[in-house]
Amino acid sequence: MSDIDLSNRNHTIKTKILVANNFILIRQALRIFIEREKDMEIIAEANDGQEVLNIITTLLPDIVILDSDMPKINGIEVTQQIIKNYPQVKVLVLIAIPESEYVTNLLKAGAVGYIPKNVSGEEIIHAIRVIIGGEMYLPYTVFQNIKQDSIYEKSYLLDNFNKLTPREHQILKMIAKGLSNKDIAVKLGLSERSVKYGITSIFTKFGVKSRTEAISLGLRTRLLNLRDFNL
To answer: Where do the H-state alpha helices sit in the chain?
Structure first.
């Protein structure tokens, strides 16, 4: 008889999630959708911003789904403290009205995803998977109210916007849809390394350091439009 332990053969490493919302009904709804996924689990729930920080000190989640309107400590302040003390924790923020100024402040605070509260449960799962894949999740609705002067003005780089290759333009549009490097590679028939190289080239030509900045500048220069954000 073999002495090999087969007990962990089918073990799935789950993404640990903390849900923070002061409405029990919303927390329960999120739990229903998230725990349908075999590779995700909710390890705790929080009712306010201070409770979020207290929980993180003892239970270290992979992702925090954080309401922007938290009691005691608001979403931006909570995000800042999480990123400062636990930079490995990813923060996905639920926003009632994705105003450009608030979105900008969340970007600066270090959140890696933003999603309107009126989306479906399936969209929440999609956002989590994008973040698990190491990418930022930005739904197209976030940009509907962006003002001309609100994010990362870099007018001195305008000449470089016209230097994107057709392939880089394709990649930029897929970044706008929130697709991961792996998903982009599959859709374009490329290796992940080629996609990563293409994204690096876009960042260099745009003079930016993140997908968010690339997308906002793409919108500004009309290389992207809101139709490009439809999944």
So the answer is: 24-34, 49-58, 75-85, 100-109, 121-132, 158-161, 166-176, 181-188, 192-206, 211-220
Report whether 109 contacts 76 (CB < 8 A): yes
pTM > 0.85: no
Confidence at 64, pLDDT banded by 50, 70, 90 = very high
Which CATH architecture is the domain 15-143 placed in?
3-Layer(aba) Sandwich (3.40)
Q: Quick one: tokens of 30?
A: 């999120």
CB 143 within 8 A of CB 226: yes
Place of tokens 């309401």: 67
Q: Where are the domains positioned within the chain?
A: 15-143, 155-229
| Half-sphere exposure of residue 138: CA atoms within 13 angstroms, side-chain side | 28
Domain 155-229 has CATH 3.40.50.1170: no
Tokens of 102: 């608030």
pLDDT for res 215? 79
Task: Quote the CA–CA distance of 71 and 216 in Å, as a whole number.
Answer: 30
- Determine the average pLDDT of the residues in 4-28: 77
Residue 25 half-sphere exposure, CB side, CA atoms within 13 Å? 0
| Residue 162: band (very low, low, confident or very high) from pLDDT cuts 50, 70, 90 | low
Q: Do domains 15-143 and 155-229 have the same CATH topology?
A: no
